[in-house]
Amino acid sequence: MTDKACRECHLISDGSICPACNASNMSDDFSGIVVIIDPKGSAIARAMKVKEKGHYALRVR
Ligand SMILES: [Zn+2]
């Protein structure tokens, strides 16, 4: 798998364009994965300003 993380919103995806914010600013150098299932009920999602459920990288370089 060649997952990449978006530098803009930290969403992890296997494409070269972020499906959440359409940025082509994807990095394969990231660490930490957070799975957001309930963006409205999750304090982590609020802290990361995440509005869509999915896999997110904690840190993207
Ligand atoms: Zn993005």
The domain tally reads 1
What's the shape?
globular
Distance between the termini: 19 Å
Bound heterogens, unique? zinc ion
Strand content: 25-35%
Give the total of beta strands.
5
Top-tier CATH class: Mainly Beta
Radius of gyration: 11 Å
Instruction: Please name the CATH topology.
Output: Rubrerythrin, domain 2
Can you put this structure into words, describing what you see?
- There is one protein chain.
- The chain has 61 residues and is mainly beta.
- The chain has a single domain, classed as Rubrerythrin, domain 2, CATH 2.20.28.90.
- Helix content is 8%, strand content 34%.
- It has 1 helix and 5 strands.
- It has one helix spanning 43-47; strands spanning 4-6, 12-13, 26-27, 30-36, 54-60.
- The strands form 2 sheets. It has a 3-stranded antiparallel sheet, with no helix packed on it. It has a two-stranded antiparallel sheet with strand order 4-5.
- The structure holds zinc ion.
- Zinc ion binds at residues 6, 8-9, 11, 18, 20-21, 23.
